[in-house]
């Protein structure tokens, strides 16, 4: 796990007056260590390697905290979680590329797409609370290995 990234997360929590407990930190680290999105139960199994007493509520509380702070995203279509590339920003647009073969997820930030979405939102007088676009397909690595 990148110590600089962990320090940034800790600094954000201190600035916001919220606690990054050891369990919350470990769940975040596990999410960051995985190349693909992980379900809560996959996270629990990995957490049990360092904390054998961990139970599902432990993971769900950590996930709720990490989502609330903007450190992770929920991949709605697969009910799984990934780290956020612009962690700490509560409201932002994300475009997720989800590989249906290996399960990897890439988060994109495209200023042109964001501008277009903002124009459409404003045009309809709509206020968004969050916006995540999920695109499913096959990643470059999986499509290359299939040939």
TrEMBL record:
Fe cation binds at residue 131. Zn(2+) binds at residues 99, 102, 139, 142. Keywords: Cytoplasm, DNA-binding, Iron, Metal-binding, Repressor, Transcription, Transcription regulation, Zinc. It comes from the Bacteria. Its cofactor is Mn(2+); Fe(2+); Zn(2+). Belongs to the Fur family. This is Ferric uptake regulation protein. It comes from Vibrio gelatinilyticus. The lineage of its organism: Bacteria, Pseudomonadati, Pseudomonadota, Gammaproteobacteria, Vibrionales. The gene is zur.
